[in-house]
Amino acid sequence: MEWFRRLSFRKKILTSYILFIGLAFLLSGVYCIRSIRTSRQETIRYMHQFAEQVNLNMEVIFSNMDRVRFIHLIDDKVKPMIRTKTDEKSLTKALEDDDYVTRALNHMTNMNQYVLRATFVNEYGDVYSNIKTENSSYLDRMYNIQRRQDWEDRHNIYYTGVYHETINMVEYPLITSISKIYDIDQDRPIGTLYIDLNFSAVRQILDQTLESASTGTHLMIFDHKGELIYHTGENEDVWGNIQNSEKQEIIELVKTDETDISNDCEIRLNGKEAAVTLMDSQTTGWRVLVYTPLSDIYAAGIKNIAGLAAMMGIVLITAMFLGVILSGQISRPVSILIKAMEKVDKGTVKYIDEKEYDWQDEMGMLLHSYNQMGQRINESIEKIYVYQLNQKQTELKMLQFQINPHFLYNTLNTISSIALLEGVDEIAKISDNLSSMFQYNIKGSDIVPIGQEFKQVNRYMTIQTIRFPGKYEFTQHIPEALYDEPVLKFVLQPLVENSLKHAFPKMRETNQIDLEAYYDGEDIEIRIRDNGIGMNSDIVRELNEELEKMDTKTLVANVDRGIGLRNVNARIKNFYGKEYGIKIKSKESEYTVIQIRIHRIAGDKQEEQK
Fold this sequence. Notes:
Elements: H1 2-6, H2 9-63, H3 66-69, H4 71-74, H5 78-82, H6 91-110, E1 115-122, E2 127-129, H7 136-146, E3 157-159, E4 163-167, E5 170-181, E6 191-198, H8 199-211, E7 218-222, E8 228-231, H9 244-254, E9 265-269, E10 272-280, E11 287-293, H10 294-326, H11 331-342, H12 354-357, H13 362-400, H14 405-422, H15 426-442, E12 447-449, H16 450-467, E13 472-477, E14 486-488, H17 492-503, E15 511-520, E16 523-530, H18 537-549, H19 552-557, H20 565-576, E17 581-587, E18 591-599, H21 603-609
Parallel strand pairs: 13-15
Antiparallel strand pairs: 1-2, 1-6, 3-5, 4-5, 5-6, 7-8, 7-11, 9-10, 10-11, 12-14, 15-16, 16-18, 17-18
Helix pairs in contact: 2-8, 2-10, 14-15, 15-16, 16-17
């Protein structure tokens, strides 16, 4: 240290930079090793996410077949046709029933681009199919497969591997789902449904998923028997190029009963070590295998590290050179900067007058950069402030657009069934109300008169009373003076929908929904009452405590929990304040009341929301 003190300022800087450079390169070596490890971990994490995306895509494809499985529930005419033995029908009746069921199956399969054929075999052995198939070997094969399965769980669905079948003189690669069909009032199946999917269409979806993946990532899918049904590159014999010993290792890994997919493993493929992630498909029971050669992982990491090391070396050498030359010219400009920084008050940066010093060298650029930085900081502070003001409004809009699709699907099914089978005038009424609901949800301001909210509920209940004739009684009571009171949009219909969903799991003789609103001082209270199954006091207490404590952050973190009570409650609290929101009263087996308390909106706040 004594020797260091006797050195000149320039030599001190030079000596310090030499030490810093040596330390930097040492740290760079440590960083290189850590970066390679990090690169491997990131690749494994990416492979796991990619496998989840593949499973999600397959789940979307296969879940779309549920519409076909419920044809006997959607179409009331189909049920008696398939539950009556053909031998007990007249020839004319048998032909008419067969034609009707064929057209119904054809209509359902045409709505799914992946389904080629749907075949239903009832409990008496009668066969209905949207495509007339005389090939008895197909039915024999399906029967042999389904009789070997465990059908103790009535919701079980079995998926075959890929096989080839000729349909309408065209050979297709197929996957068949086999499921037992039950009626609502039956404990034994009324038949078996075979749904044939075009695996070429499924392959296209998987290929499109792979297009977005990194070039070094590959995908294999094995069925429940451990047989390969898909691999990366349809035109490349990837599986055929793998050595037999490596194939055996893969098959043993795939057939392992329990695989901890949170931990990665390694195998050899084509003589190269590869990182592997395994994941099971909950829908099909297949196993998804994603792998990336380690050479590809490390090559990318080493390339990035080399670029970083080169950049670091250039920066350090340049800094050392400038430090030696400019050491004598640093003190005064730095002092000016220090004084300017001392004047920073409450987050606002004060600017330096560049004309007073008029430096043309790097110090002048430094002062200019300081002013630019101060300008950006000041602008950033303003942007952050504006962003915080708009954040709640953005969250409200995001929550508003999260409409539960099940009502849409059920309504469209009703419209389709009425249009196709009944030909009644109710279709116009449903269509008009549904169109008005959509237009109301996506257009207009966030603040509307309360009368429009009541009209929206009335449209919804009109559709429900048509879907379930005579099952619902809906009344609404609102004073005329309340009709023009502005309220937050889209708060009533989700709650009424929630009441119908949870209050009446089983239809009663009369299912009542009562909606009323009234003034309570400067507040407005709205009540939605049903005569449904109600809730016990413990559940009511827990719900009220959760609704009372809920804030926007809690809701966003649990947004997958729906657009019912919690969603609407968060929107109300965000807009009106924490003292407002939803409260529930209920008595088991008798009633449930949802109480909504909001504040009357002042004129200036209403204008801000338009």
